[in-house]
Amino acid sequence: MKCIIIDDEPLAVELIEDFVSKISFLELVASCSNGFEATEILEKQEVDLIFTDIEMPNFSGIDVIKIAYQ
Predict the structure, then answer these.
(1) Are 30 and 45 in contact (CB under 8 A)?
(2) Cα-Cα-Cα-Cα dihedral sign, residues 43, 39, 49, 10
(3) What is the distance between the alpha carbons of residues 61 and 15, in angstroms, rounded to a whole number?
(4) 33-39, long-range: CB within 8 Å, 24+ apart, which pairs?
(5) Which residues are 35's β-sheet partners?
(6) Phi, psi of 10, deg, nearest 5
(7) Model confidence pLDDT, tens digit, residues 60-70
(8) 42, 52, 48, 47: which is closest to 8 by C-alpha?
(9) Residues 51 and 6: beta-carbon distance below 8 Å
(10) How far apart are CA 59 and CA 50, in angstroms?
(11) Across-strand partners of 8?
């Protein structure tokens, strides 16, 4: 299962990356620190699972998903 992490807090990204690395069927496609970066990745790469922060500057995690999957 391909997944992406979207979070503006480096510690949260690190914790989720650690979690993902321990699950054999998860493949981390990218870790993004903002919505702009995430939408670029999601336009080019198909993912099955998104770990996202809801409260982020400029775009919330929900906004990123809405933009990417319009």
Answers:
(1) yes
(2) positive
(3) 18
(4) 33/7, 33/8, 34/6, 34/8, 34/58, 34/59, 35/6, 35/59, 35/60, 35/61, 35/63, 35/64, 35/67, 38/4, 38/6, 38/64, 38/68, 39/64, 39/67, 39/68
(5) none
(6) -55, -40
(7) 889 998 888 88
(8) 52
(9) yes
(10) 15
(11) none
Q: Which CATH class is domain 2-68?
A: alpha beta
The pLDDT tens digits of the residues spanning 18-60 come to 999 999 999 999 999 999 999 999 999 999 999 999 988 888 8
pLDDT of residue 57: 85
Per DSSP bridges, beta strands 2-6 and 49-52 are parallel
